[in-house]
Amino acid sequence: MKTVLITGATGDVGTHLSRELAGKYKLRLSDRRPLKAPKGQAFMKADISKMSDALRITKGVDAVVHLGGYSVEGPWDAILKANIIGCYNVFEAARRNGVKRILFPTSNHAVGFYRRDETIDHKVYPKPDSRYGVSKVFGEALGSLYADKYGMEVFMMRIGNVGPKPLDKRRLSIWFSPRDLAQLVSIGIDRPGIKFEIVYGISNNKRRWYDNSNAERLGYRPQDDSEAYAEEILAKEPPSNDPIAEMHQGGVFCTAEEVPNPAAPKKKKR
Ligand code: 15L
Predict the structure, then answer these.
(1) What's residue 89's pLDDT?
(2) Spatial distance between the Cα atoms of 91 and 104, rounded to a whole number of angstroms
């Protein structure tokens, strides 16, 4: 059984993924925040903005799924530390420890300034919609460098929005169900012969904006389609007063300076 490190394991995507992959791989979970690992999984507390921590957690694993980072638009300092320095540390530590394969969740926000009336494939040039999106483009570029220069096997997933259900109209196009996430990640871990690939991390959504034929070529057969939720979601969608957000795939990331951070500690009610 392969040993797989999942960084950012306490986050939303990490929680869904570790639940879905339990029993399939020997999972080593890691995060800055504490986590009680389920039976049969290991937890290592680590701050990936420190190279020594990145080296410690990547030692002796077959593959890394590097989910750790700042997950929305926000202050540059936080993005720099987590998504530029942290991302570099994880790639470099994996290389030094001889880890062959790394999976990176880039984001729909690396290409969020494409319009909603366009269908884009994995070969389009980046059009980030935010500082966060720029940091994901950095991750894609770093992965490409490590593949070409050091022969690492790199699997880039431009992830939409992971969750049990799509959240709103925009997410009908980019929804990624947990079981489809697990299928795509398993391809990224197990498929032989990967050098550097970019795929879209979305379900089989009728309203998708992506031509995901590269993922299909690699064997991805998504099971879920957001259309089942469309009627319910569209009925409660509030009118938008942000035409730029409405026109582009990245939505409010195209206009907002900060998007609520799902990982921020909840404010106590008084
Ligand atoms: C992302 O890249 C974020 O990590 C996630 O929190 C969502 O905001 C998602 O994009 C989205 O576009 O819905």
Answers:
(1) 98
(2) 10
For 255, other C-beta atoms within 10 Å of its C-beta total 16
Specify the ligand 1 atom closest to the Cα of 167: 13
**Strand residue runs (E) in the chain:** 3-7, 26-31, 42-45, 63-66, 101-107, 153-159, 161-162, 175-176, 196-201
Phi, psi (rounded to 5 degrees) for 62: -85, -30
List Cβ neighbours of 56 (8 Å cut-off, separation of 6 or more).
44, 46
Name the catalytic one among 25, 70, 114, 132.
132
Beta bridge partner(s), residue 189: none
Cα(232) to ligand 1 centroid in Å equals: 21
pTM: 0.96
* Span from the CA of 60 to the centroid of ligand 1 (angstroms): 31
The neighbour count for residue 32, using CB atoms within 10 Å, is 17
Is the Cα torsion angle 128, 133, 137, 140 positive or negative in sign?
negative
Taking CB atoms and a 6 Å cutoff, what residues make up the pocket around ligand 1?
A: 71-72, 107-109, 161, 171, 262
**Does residue 270 carry a pLDDT above 60?**
no
Question: Hey, what amino acid is at 27?
Answer: L
